[in-house]
């Protein structure tokens, strides 16, 4: 019901702009598993005011700093985002300290979150990105002692309207409501990928990425994160895009097991891709199979046969044409101690 009312609200407010890309995708039966933007770590830098489509070089942040952070983090396997307090559209932020979050460790099964206040964001350029990608939080703190451990996970909701209108029209409403309920635990952020699934959200430090947030689901995501969990209602194919430290197929394998056994703890599952001589292999021009082993921290394990299907679909961005997009189908087989197998899906 929430999805219908949000869609109706968009249509009535901006009648000349429909259909929005996320509206068209609302009706898709393709699972969102495996669509989170891959990143072994995340840097989030507070920058109030307007953001352009390429926000790191099109905001009131020094574009040289933004470009350097973007390049350096991507080269190390991470991502940089801009964030702002919900509704903070100040035109002048000169001299004011800005909040910075740095999240890592998810790939190693031990997610951590650092935070700090910085007047000059250029100091962030000196962080040891390769060590951060390897899960070393202390290496970052040695360079910038102002960074301290943050024990309260945060939810970032994309509201970057210059990048895609869906994120502004849908994302800002969800962010405003969630921030009204949970305050500083919710931030607006720049593009995280997948605006066709707006409103989208990212939890730090786990890197869990969500699609089609409703007001209620956004609050549930924040609340569950405080206990190191995902909300159970988000485990289905329509909401959990994936754990961002994994590749797309591995995200899908992880999500399928979570949905099957109702596992809510992000670090509880580890995913390993099988060797190239086993996978991947082409099934057809538009389908490719890869095999992964998903291991639970209680000792259980599954073989996940992940088929990547690339098919024509609706536009993936507002104002764009329909283009082929990839979705994942997962078949699970539980490995029984002693060499047996038990098929799940």
From TrEMBL:
Q: Organism's domain of life?
A: Bacteria
Give me the stretches of Polar residues compositional bias: 1-15
InterPro entries named among the record's database cross-references: Aim32/Apd1-like, Thioredoxin-like_sf
Specify where the region named Disordered lies, as residue ranges.
Answer: 1-27
Report what the protein is called: Sucrase ferredoxin
Instruction: State the organism of origin.
Output: Austwickia chelonae NBRC 105200
